[in-house]
Write a structure and sequence with these properties.
six-stranded parallel beta sheet; about 325 residues; 14 strands; elongated; Rossmann fold; Elongation Factor Tu (Ef-tu), domain 3; alpha/beta
Amino acid sequence: MELIRGLHNLAPRHRGSVVSIGNFDGLHRGHQALIARLRSLAAEHRVPLTVVTFEPMPREYFQRDNPPPRIADLRGKLRDLAAFGVERVLLLPFGPRLAAMSADAFVQQVLVDGLGARAVIVGDDFRFGAKRVGDLALLKAIGSTAGFTADGLGTVTLDGERSSSTALRTALGLPDLDAVARLLARRYRITGRVRHGLKLGRELGMATANLHLGRPPALAHGVYAVKAYWADAPDGLPGVASLGVRPTLGLTTCLLETHVFDVKPNLYGQEIAIEFHQFLRPQLKFDGLDALAAQMQADGLDARTHFTAELMPSS
């Protein structure tokens, strides 16, 4: 997949595409249905499937004091888009200039002049441009004279509930991992590069692979039964993970610490994906390291019990 950072990096060869525009946070079933429709149109027009997205997301820009938690970081979003067949991503920096751009100017500069769009598909509630005045009706009106078609994708529902980033964020915050898996059509993962930490887990008898997350994800802090995937473990290995800020140590940086059972891989510097299978308990503050160590061992046993039960055939 080709990543194009900013309008100034568009070249004549990028003209001619089918396009969707949005945040694509989490790539839930609604996003997946939209991309599937785009794939069909791309094959019909024989042009690349292109997604236009933003960094930061518009709501993060406008709600800087209280931004919504992200379902996936930028790297995870790009990885997901590539996995679902997106061929190009135009990543636009969202700041004062883009926030003030009129809807008409956005269509002309991005879709017409920049991408030479043949077809545009968006969610039927999509809004864009300064003061969010642009909508599907405007896309259709401009497209009729500019040479592209525009259409909206109706709401995708699961058991009567709308499949959306808001619903997914809510399920992650509870956390309801079964609902998350239904909305994503897969289990939730956090991916990153393993960094050095305090080495405290090793001292307490449970060495961990640490992902420094910077901004906390939408998933509730706590302890989880997980599977870890990396280059030498493509099928995943079970383990136990703690997501949070480590209150016992008085720290505030969000960290995902994963102990993989029964192996001692050297994962420093490697990219690892942590897949969440079961919520075990919320994050707690303990009186000292001895109490923390005892609870870590108990958490490990709970996670092993979960995976043993997961392997048992249902009656």
